[in-house]
Every structure is written in structure tokens, then in C-alpha cells.
Design brief:
This is Zn-dependent hydrolase. GO terms for molecular function: hydrolase activity. Keywords: Hydrolase. The protein is α+β, with helices and mostly antiparallel strands. The strands form three sheets. A six-stranded mixed sheet has the order 6-7-8-9-12-13. It has a five-stranded mixed sheet with strand order 1-2-3-4-5. The chain has one domain: Metallo-beta-lactamase, Chain A (4-Layer Sandwich), CATH 3.60.15. Helix 1 packs parallel to helix 3. Helices cover 24% and strands 33% of the residues.
């Protein structure tokens, strides 16, 4: 029962700074036939729970706390009892969605989370938000990048709590140092690889986003 990656695409809205946009989100499930973790519980708890099935959900791991990545957390947590992990630096964003509840615990840079016989490594990658993290899965040749790195460049930094020089530093120091064939599984849109994105770093810096 080797660990595998599953993808559920969900649809909903993202709201921040007085604006609201329709978005499709990638929900990633990492596990085997008996246990798994969910990376970002977005929009559609029923679809996420259906994908989990009868497996034990060990944790909901959040790449950051923008509402489109956490709006199904309460329902998934209620149905499974799974702990919810979020970097403490994003707590203000969480509190806008869930003012009366708290995540189960935070993340530390370099933390290792075991699931289904493999390890997910936590990389603190601020910029898109202060508490943004990515999860490496070396055994699966993958990094789950949330909204830090996309197919085509960095995540957005034009809204509250974001900063472009910070996200560039995070991507340069934490992501572009991964093996070139590492598959980048993103929070929205198509996957890419570190090798496909790395040559464009100077272009991103020049354009400023």
C-alpha cells in the first residue's frame, strides 16, 4: 500500500480587502488505503470527505489561512475529528473566518509529518501571507506549494499581509533549491516542476509580481 497523491478540485470564492473572486482550488490528499492527510480543505467538505472515504484522516494541513483554503475546515474537522495545523503567523486570517475556534496546533519550519510510511517536510515560505508554508514529499518527488509558487511564477502579493520581496526570498531559498524534477503541486491551476520555473526567477523580479 504505497503512499499516493490524490487531487480534488473544488469551486468557491476568495474574499479579502473588500473584494470577492470566484476561484477553483486544488485540495491534495496524501496517503494510502488506510490513512491520509488533507492539504487545504477548500470549499466543498462533501467532496473532500468522499475522497477520504473510510480512511483515517490524520490531519488537515493548511498552506495558509486565506478563506478559500480553509472554508471547509470546520465541516471536515467535525466529521473526522482530525487535528488542523496552521502556522501561527496566519492566525489573524484564520480568525476572520473562524473567530470562535482555533487551529489544533502550529507549524515549525523543518517539522516532519509522517503519513502512510512517508514524511512531509514543512517549509515556512512567507510572502503570499506571513504564515504560508509548503510541504515537501521527497519520497513522492513532490512539493505542495499552496499559493507560494505557481505554474508561471510567484503567488499574488498585492493584498493585505503580503510582500513581494519576501515571497521571492522564500521561493529562492526554500523551493528553487529542491531537485529540478520535483513536481510542484499548487493551490490553484496546473502543476509544474522546479526545473521549469527556476530559469524565470529574474523575469519575475523584473516584472514585480
Amino acid at each position: 500500500m504505497a503512499a499516493r497523491i490524490e487531487n480534488v478540485v473544488t469551486h468557491g470564492t476568495f474574499s479579502l480587502d473588500g473584494g470577492t473572486w470566484e476561484v477553483d482550488n486544488n485540495v491534495w490528499i496524501v496517503g494510502d488505503d488506510t490513512e491520509c492527510v488533507v492539504i487545504d480543505a477548500a470549499h466543498d467538505a462533501d467532496a473532500i470527505l468522499a475522497a477520504i472515504g473510510e480512511r483515517t484522516l490524520k490531519a488537515v494541513l493548511l498552506t495558509h489561512a486565506h478563506d478559500d483554503h480553509i472554508d471547509a475546515v470546520a465541516a471536515v474537522r467535525a466529521a473526522t475529528g482530525a487535528p488542523v495545523l496552521l502556522h501561527e503567523a496566519d492566525r489573524m486570517l484564520w480568525d476572520e473566518v473562524y473567530p470562535d475556534t482555533a487551529p489544533s496546533s502550529g507549524f515549525a519550519d523543518g517539522q516532519v509529518i509522517p503519513v502512510a510510511g512517508i514524511e512531509l517536510g514543512v517549509l515556512h515560505t512567507p510572502g503570499h501571507s506571513p504564515g504560508a508554508v509548503c510541504f515537501t514529499a521527497p519520497a513522492l518527488g513532490t512539493v505542495f506549494s499552496g499559493d507560494t509558487l505557481f505554474n508561471g511564477g510567484p503567488g499574488a502579493t498585492g493584498r493585505s499581509y503580503s510582500d513581494f520581496p519576501t515571497i521571492i526570498e522564500s521561493i529562492t531559498a526554500k523551493l528553487l533549491t529542491l531537485p529540478a524534477d520535483t513536481v510542484v503541486r499548487t493551490g490553484h491551476g496546473d502543476s509544474t516542476t522546479i526545473g521549469a520555473e527556476a530559469p524565470h526567477l529574474e523575469e519575475w523580479i523584473a516584472r514585480g509580481h
